[in-house]
Design a protein that fits this description.
The complex is a heterodimer. By secondary structure, chain A is an alpha+beta fold. Chain A has ten helices and 18 strands. In chain A, the strands form four sheets. Chain A has a six-stranded antiparallel beta sheet. Chain A has a five-stranded antiparallel beta sheet with strand order 1-11-10-6-7. In chain A, α1 runs antiparallel to α2 and α8 packs across α9. Classes of the chains: A alpha+beta, B alpha+beta. Chains A and B meet through α7 of A and α1 and β2 of B.
């Protein structure tokens, strides 16, 4: 299996220990674009609050960088533990970690040090793969154990990694007197995928931390973190904006839209009119839009979303630039576009280049930018900030 | 609905920027006595750019008749005119 065949969705959800303003668990992830590789670390620092956060940040950063450089496993662990500062109360230095390294051919390496074992979920079953045990000595003191595991993921596999804030949630309560044990977490995981087999990594992780929080009777006893890695079919989105320069290409455009496998978005009234006419469908314009600054969205059967063009795209570009400062949902059609862009992995733009004569009126506000420039801006943000795979086709 | 007067408001980019966003509110701003007699809908473009070289947005369409530089007041006046005939 090649990495290009699937999309790796990585998401982490965290809830701080009651009363703490930062988490003592730290998640870091990096995509090595040149090598087509993903490295991800989740670390739990000793204690909680700022002190734990520093330990975990150090650990996660070193884990991430050493692994990226393909530093030997044991040496990485040893260096991390030797570097961590000693806790003034407990007189030890300590942080746990789990590292996942997904290589270009898909081969996935998992390293675990004192975190609860990761769950590998495939086809509604828990994969029990043998882990290799490594013993090492920190400062020639008591031996420590490190586990590693290598496997080839398949499409729809999930790796679920969590800190002890999850596995020990609810400890001492009547329901989970000994904490949330592995079997129960696994059952919970399958209850999430039941009926929703394609649940996103983000939602999956969120549901687990929320359940752990609930187990703790809504007052977290420890920092709760859950990291989910989901290998899946890339989700594709087609964005059509602008009428084709040559009217002969109207048919080609409509054909592309009809036969595209994935979500479809049309930005532009004229473009929508052309496509609807060629598809023999009617357009329903929504009068009651919730965000009057932008023209309302409309609906064409078979198209997921139809909006106005340049004004809406300019708003999208502005919102993406400041993401996540503002709650995008409050911006009507632009918010809907942002949601679509966020939830898809591969985004294909088809940009028509015919000039709208009506927009050449000098009395129009200057914000009415040239479509191509706005699209270019959006594409750059999607690539750099959101790590999306984007293509543009001018027509 | 058949007996109602049909008002279409252009919400294309050009018209929207040039005042169409206010026109769109007409649904809520119609005088009470007209409310039951009028059916309002939005349109992506009423074809203004094909009408003449210098279009005068925003456009509205009342029973198939185009109105340029439309305002709520102008539309209401036209509606009353039609109802009195």
């Amino acid at each position: 299996m090649k990495m290009n065949d699937f999309f790796v969705e990585i998401a982490c959800s965290q809830i701080n220990k009651n009363g703490q303003i930062v988490s003592g668990d730290v998640f870091q992830s990096k995509q090595l674009k040149d090598e087509n590789r993903y490295v991800t670390v989740l670390s739990d620092g000793l204690g909680s609050g700022i002190k734990a956060n520093i330990l975990a940040t150090l650990t996660a950063t070193m884990g991430l960088n050493f692994t990226s450089e393909r530093f030997p496993l044991i040496k990485t662990a040893q260096t991390i533990l030797d570097t961590l500062p000693v806790d003034s109360e407990r007189k030890i230095s300590y942080a746990t970690f789990s590292i996942v390294d997904i290589d270009c051919d898909g081969e996935t390496h998992l390293v675990e040090f004192d975190n609860p074992p990761a769950l590998l979920l495939r086809n509604g079953q828990l994969m029990e793969l043998p882990r290799e045990k490594h013993i090492f000595h920190k400062n020639k003191k008591a031996p420590k154990e490190l586990y590693s595991l290598t496997f080839m993921p398949q499409k729809e596999d999930r790796i679920v990694i969590f800190t002890d804030g999850v596995s020990q949630s609810g400890i001492g309560t009547a329901i989970y007197p000994f904490g949330w044990d592995k079997d129960e977490i696994v059952t919970f995981c399958f209850s999430l995928t039941e009926g929703h087999p394609h649940i996103s990594a983000h939602t999956f992780a969120d549901k687990i931390t929320k359940q752990a929080f609930k187990n703790d009777i809504y007052s977290a006893k420890d920092d709760i973190s859950c990291l989910v890695i989901y290998f899946r079919q890339p989700r594709k989105l087609l964005v059509c904006t602008g009428p084709p320069y040559d009217i002969k290409n109207d048919d080609w455009l409509t054909d592309k839209v009809t036969h595209f496998e994935g979500q479809k978005l049309i930005c532009g009234g004229t473009t929508a009119t052309i496509i609807a006419r060629k598809m023999n469908k009617s357009i329903q314009v929504n009068m009651d839009n919730d965000y009057p600054e932008l023209p309302p969205a409309s609906a064409i059967e078979g198209i997921d979303l139809v909006t106005e063009g340049v004004l809406t795209l300019s708003k999208v570009s502005e919102l993406l630039e400041n993401y996540p400062d503002k709650n995008a949902d409050a911006f009507g059609p632009a918010g809907k576009i942002i949601h679509m862009l966020r939830t898809n992995d591969e985004i294909n733009f088809i940009v028509g280049t015919r000039i709208n004569e009506a927009h050449q009126d000098p009395t129009l506000p200057v914000e009415l930018e040239i479509r191509r420039n706005v699209v270019k801006k959006i594409v750059k943000i999607l690539e750099d900030k959101f790590l999306k795979k984007v293509s543009i086709h001018y027509l | 609905m058949e007996n109602k007067i049909k008002v279409r408001i252009c919400v294309g980019t050009y018209c929207y920027v040039m005042g169409g966003h206010e026109l769109k509110e007409i649904k809520n701003k119609l005088p009470d006595d007209l409310r039951d007699k009028v059916y309002v809908e939005a349109s992506l473009c009423l074809g203004c750019d094909n009408i003449k070289a210098n279009p005068e947005p925003p456009y509205a369409e009342i029973n198939g008749k185009l109105m340029e530089k439309a305002t709520i007041e102008k539309i209401v006046a036209e509606l009353r005119n039609l109802l009195n005939q």
